Automatic annotation (TrEMBL):
The protein, known as: histidine kinase
SUPFAM superfamilies per record: ATPase domain of HSP90 chaperone/DNA topoisomerase II/histidine kinase
Enzyme class: transferase
Domain of life from the UniProt record: Bacteria
Substrates-to-products reaction catalysed: ATP + protein L-histidine = ADP + protein N-phospho-L-histidine
Residues covered by the Signal transduction histidine kinase subgroup 3 dimerisation and phosphoacceptor domain: 164-230
InterPro entries xref list: HATPase_C_sf, Sensor_HK_TwoCompSys, Sig_transdc_His_kin_sub3_dim/P
Gene Ontology MF terms in the entry: ATP binding; phosphorelay sensor kinase activity; protein dimerization activity
Cellular component GO terms held in the UniProt record: membrane
Length: 386
């Protein structure tokens, strides 16, 4: 209304043009198409009329700001083209009709003046809008990057939780399955030897007690880790191999253990080797024919290579994939496959005639893709039968 009051005194056309421009300003955030039509109508009204509403035309800066800051690139390009046409129109108006109004030196001076003024208003408005759009894009890019980083951390945390859950589940299975397999075998032996071989029954009960105590200690460690994730996981390794072999032999297994090469002292490899050997022997104790010997071969000449062979009778064949290879189906086999894969190795288990054969290979630490650093070895063992 202020601009209308100023321009109505100049004439009817400038006053009406000021009102039309005010309407355009009111709807510029609603529809850029409608605003463009209103702005064009106001420009045509002034060009064909006798006078120009110079002060009210400052509203064109706001119109072109809206076009320059629009999210659609086609609208921004339309605004730039419209600004060019507006400058050309202003210059043409100055060259044809403006000379008599401002000076007698010729229409070219007025054309340059009006063109420059128009370029400042519409071009400056469009450029300010473009800068506003770019600023919003920069802020949005930062926000998107922060959201993506948070999402990546969330997914990483979920992955870590899932891996920890799988590790704890595997540890629980290894401890419980191995311990109760030994306890079951020893309790049966003690029951049969109770009358005729008291000394054998006493030895079996001693093995049961020692196995139970070891299992309780392992379970306490696992429960402590569940309560306090900051605790380091238990890492049984080579030191427990002799105890494992002793328990298996005390359970009635005729175990032949052959080990070659120098052991790798990597904690991950030590834990993997202990768990793989323990689960393989536990399966042989639970499902194998203990009237026949069980052979376990450990070869350290090419990383860690484990082969456990035991006789079976009346055991169903495992599921097989399309290539005919055995597919691990039990929790123990799945756990061994996961442990081997995490360590960068390969695992297979299946029936070969009357034999059940477990094969696992974990490459040396420096041979695992992505591994860095040197791996030292500690202690040597000579080839032989334990």
């Amino acid at each position: 209304m202020f601009m209308f009051a100023i321009h109505i005194g100049q004439g009817t056309v400038p006053g009406v043009a000021a009102l039309v421009l005010a309407v355009g300003l009111a709807v510029r955030r609603v529809s850029w198409q409608l605003t463009s039509v209103i702005a064009l109508g106001a420009a045509v009204l002034q060009v064909v009329g006798p006078d120009i509403a110079y002060l009210a035309n400052v509203a064109y800066a706001a119109f072109f700001f809206t076009l320059g800051s629009h999210r659609d690139a086609r609208v921004r390009r339309f605004g730039l083209a419209a600004a060019g046409l507006a400058v050309a129109g202003a210059a043409a108006y100055g060259a044809t009709r403006g000379a008599g109004e401002f000076s007698r030196s010729g229409g070219w001076a007025t054309a340059v003046g009006l063109g420059s003024m128009c370029a400042l208003v519409v071009g400056g408005g469009w450029l300010a809008g473009l800068l506003r759009w770019q600023s919003r894009q920069t802020v949005q890019a930062r926000i998107d990057a922060q959201i993506e980083a948070v999402e990546r951390r969330r997914i990483s945390d979920l992955y870590d939780v899932e891996q920890e859950r799988r590790r704890i589940a595997a540890d629980m299975h290894d401890v419980v399955a191995h311990s109760w397999a030994v306890v079951a075998a020893q309790s049966d032996g003690a029951r049969y030897a109770l009358r005729d071989n008291p000394a054998g029954a006493e030895q079996a009960l001693s093995v049961i007690g020692e196995t139970a105590r070891t299992a309780i200690a392992d379970l306490r460690t696992i429960v402590a880790q569940l309560r306090d994730p900051a605790l380091q996981p238990s890492t049984p390794g080579y030191e427990q191999q002799a105890e494992l072999v002793g328990r298996m032999r005390a359970s009635g297994m005729d175990l032949e253990l052959v080990e070659r090469g120098e052991r790798d002292d990597s904690p991950l490899l030590a834990l993997t080797a202990h768990r793989l050997l323990g689960e393989s022997l536990t399966n042989a104790l639970k499902h194998g024919d203990l009237d026949q010997p069980v052979r376990a071969e450990i070869d350290w000449t090419d990383g860690y290579r484990l082969t456990v062979t035991n006789h079976v009778s009346g055991v169903d064949l495992p599921d097989r994939d399309r290539s005919g290879r055995a597919v691990p189906s039990g929790h123990g086999l799945v756990g061994m496959a996961e442990r081997t894969t995490v360590a960068g190795g390969t695992f297979s288990a299946g029936r070969e005639g009357d034999l059940w054969v477990v094969r696992a290979h974990v490459p040396a630490y420096e041979a695992i893709p992505g591994a860095t650093g040197d791996t030292a070895t500690d202690g040597t063992t000579t080839e032989g039968t334990a």
